[in-house]
Amino acid sequence: MPAPILEVRNLVKTYSRGLIAKQETFRLEADFTVAEPGVVGVMGPNGSGKTTLFELITGSNQPSGGEVICMGKNIHHVKYRERDRLAIHYHQSYQVRHFKRTKPAFMMEPAGLDYPMVHLFDEPQFNTQDGYIGFMLDFFVKLRREGRVVFVCVHPNEPFHLEIMREICERYIFVQKGHLTEAPDFATLLQHAPVRDYLGRLVPDAA
């Protein structure tokens, strides 16, 4: 049986303030697996940890604990310049996120791939006026058809944003205050009270 494409194992990222008596200000915890190709929808309030999660998955942020295994490799042990051959993070206007170097590259292992298996789109600019939506949706479908995993993070403020998520995503992750809630489909996602509170007026239009 082939290994899962992506395993996020007991992942933890904490931030704190203070030099002597440190006080934890934020904690993100994640533990999930994406075994097969698919499109995963990600939602949650601003500041909830969505971008931090994406940075950890792609190796541009160092975890406080746990590990991210992509195609059988711990991405934080892969050479810096090759991590985007496993997982790549596109932030907002499709700019690729870069990473911090914390260890000499010669101490790390090669990615073993030439093209990323996991693509993470962080709040892509879906605008009905620019004709870009169709292009991006086709791109997501193409990546999935090629056997890859696509994460699409959207902060919905219009009903059509939810329509897009419902149409293209096969499973969902809701992030709130550093905690993740998984849902196997859109209907199950909407049964989660914090999700309904977050979406507010958009829920009746999406149900």
Keywords:
207 residues; alpha/beta; Rossmann fold; seven-stranded mixed β-sheet; four-stranded antiparallel β-sheet; 6 helices; 11 strands; 32% strand; globular
CATH architecture: 3-Layer(aba) Sandwich
Beta-strand fraction estimate: 25-35%
Report the count of strand segments.
Answer: 11
The first-level CATH class name? Alpha Beta
Biggest beta sheet attributes: 7 strands, mixed
Order of helices and strands: EEEHEEEEEHEHEEHHH
Structural class: alpha/beta
The tally of domains stands at 1
Task: Using the coordinates shown, work out and report the CATH topology.
Answer: Rossmann fold
Please sum up the structure shown.
This protein has a single domain (37-64, 71-206), classed as P-loop containing nucleotide triphosphate hydrolases (Rossmann fold), CATH 3.40.50.300. It is built from six helices and eleven strands. It has helices at residues 50-58, 132-145, 159-168, 186-190, 193-199, 202-206; strands at 6-17, 23-34, 38-43, 65-70, 73-74, 87-91, 95-96, 118-122, 149-153, 171-176, 179-183.
